[in-house]
């Protein structure tokens, strides 16, 4: 993204085909979410610098603590396949009046693998408008082991 102080909302159709593909992958995987308790389905897609896309959905349990968010599911799949660098993330959830951005735990998790900023596209399932932000914008004072 370049400018980590910038958050914009753009029309889906104005995004590049590659970024549309990333968001569409998050929309599709959201349909596989296992969320019988909250009924709040989230899908995420992560692109690696080589262009490979990994997807994930949220997975709940009745005790909530061991639940896993869509972003961490996608990242864990990428990491388990040997990919530890991400160039873009798409997150799709459904809130009436706002966008569903990554939670604090997911922000910290993604920052573990972010030597440089990562663009984050946040959309609703209809993907008419997309919030474009970045990991460092969402988590400006991330924890880093010195």
How would you sum up this structure, described in words?
With 146 residues, this protein is of the alpha+beta class. 33% of the residues are buried. It has helices at residues 17-30, 70-80, 104-111, 135-138, and strands at 8-11, 43-47, 53-57, 88-92, 119-123, 129-134. The protein is globular, with a radius of gyration of 14 Å. The mean pLDDT is 93. Strands 1-6-5-4-2-3 form a 6-stranded mixed sheet. The protein is 25% helix and 21% strand.
Question: What's a quick, concise take on this entry?
Answer:
This protein has 146 residues and is of the alpha+beta class.
Helicity level: 25-40%
SSE string: EHEEHEHEEH
Report the span from N to C terminus: 25 Å
The biggest sheet amounts to: 6 strands, mixed
CA-atom Rg in angstroms = 14 Å
Low-confidence stretches: none
Class by SSE composition: alpha+beta
Overall pLDDT score:
93
Q: What best-fitting shape do the alpha-carbon axes yield?
A: globular
The percentage of residues in β strands lies in 15-25%
What is the oligomeric state here? Answer: single chain
């Amino acid at each position: 993204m370049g400018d980590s102080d910038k958050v914009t909302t753009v029309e889906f159709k104005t995004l590049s085909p590659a970024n549309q593909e990333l968001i569409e992958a998050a929309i599709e995987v959201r349909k596989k979410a296992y969320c019988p308790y909250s009924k709040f389905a989230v899908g995420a897609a992560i692109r690696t610098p080589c262009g490979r896309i990994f997807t994930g959905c949220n997975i709940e349990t009745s005790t909530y603590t061991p639940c896993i968010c869509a972003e961490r599911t996608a990242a864990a799949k990428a990491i388990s396949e040997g990919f530890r660098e991400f160039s873009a993330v798409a997150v799709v959830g459904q809130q009436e009046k706002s966008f569903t951005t990554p939670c604090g735990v997911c922000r910290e998790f993604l920052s573990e693998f972010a030597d440089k900023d990562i663009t984050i596209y946040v959309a609703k399932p209809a993907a008419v408008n997309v919030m474009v932000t970045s990991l460092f914008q969402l988590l400006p004072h991330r924890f880093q082991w010195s």
